[in-house]
UniProtKB/TrEMBL annotation:
It comes from Paenibacillus catalpae. The keyword Transmembrane applies. It comes from the Bacteria. Keywords: Glycosyltransferase, Membrane, Transferase, Transmembrane, Transmembrane helix. This is Biofilm PGA synthesis N-glycosyltransferase PgaC.
Amino acid sequence: MVAIGWLIFVIWLSQPWIHQLSQTTGVIAAYLIIAGIAYLPGYISAFTLTSLLLDKKAELPTANPSIPITILIAARNEEKGIGETLEHIARQEYLGIIKIILIDNGSTDRTVEKARQTAERTGLSLMILHEEIPGKHNALNRGLKEVNTPFLITLDADTFLHPSAIRFLAAKLQISGPDVHAVAGSLLVQNNRGSFLARVQEWEYYLSIASIKRMQSIYQSTLVAQGAFSIFRSDAVKAAGGWPDSIGEDIVLTWKFFENNGRVCFEPAAVAFTEVPESFIHLIRQRKRWARGMIEALKQVSPWKIKDPTSRFFTGLDLVVPYIDLAYTFIWIPGLFLCAFGYFGLVGPNTLMVLPVTLIIFYLLNLYQKRLLGQLGIHQKKSFIGLLGFIFVFQMIIAPVALSGYAEEFFKQKRVWK
């Protein structure tokens, strides 16, 4: 209701802007333009802010489960990081049995040898499988056939776990109802001292992605149990048919849970450190995959097929995301340049009404994250330049890239994973 009230207020406040813009575009076009760059982003921001304010304070989970768990790691040429990934698993403060299944997906380096050596040195229970058909979903489904534990975790081969990560993730799933099919872990950036792009993404993971997941989890409708680090009920994954043949296999599987009347949560205390792209070309490829994955989910699991109203609401919001990206790319960015020449019809003072709400969200989440991560003994020094890049530049890069990803999926172009 607060978000709707904010939307009504902004529409009322924007009437002079509508009047000015409609002189050039017409009334209907003016409303459509302003909806893409102000109304819809403002509504989503107000909804997020209100939800976070109503949420409980950050507390570490107290349960200490001992349920047997299987970790699936799909790997292709991960010689560089697989040893350290396994070493972090060996340091877990978890009382239960941890089985690890490494699925080699056609590696041409020493990934398997390195993994076997590390497992022998650390005493890990490691099974190595081989799946020659390329594709992460093929590798994960090959490993799924060997899972005989109630819970399973997917972990990327270059992702390092905090010592309490598995305990907190398993505790969240254990105390949740049987209709909670998965819990997403919290990802922070591992290579945060790398390139400028890596420092920008550090803030994106720390603030933006965390705030969205935490907000969605309040309603048990986290839209992505990411493959990099999430826990699942094994029988729920099998009932959903395993991971689909999609470039966004984790997104589509999550939505399959919704279709099967399941729910998905997020545990902010279950922290893992992942490696983000440092080069522009790798970042573009990653974000195209994410954009295509969202469209795949919308096509394979339409929001109107989901019975639960909250999950239907959140998946339905993704229907307007391409429109927001379109408006940002072709209206907001050109509008900024026009501001320099004194034309404020597209972007001006009224447009900036969205910015304070967004900054308040980031400020509140920063306080939440600092308190929570402080309890875990995690203290990362973050780049101020990266913060400025995240707030003022990053979306200008990501929105056009997302549009190209949508287009690639629409025209069924070849999928590129790396």
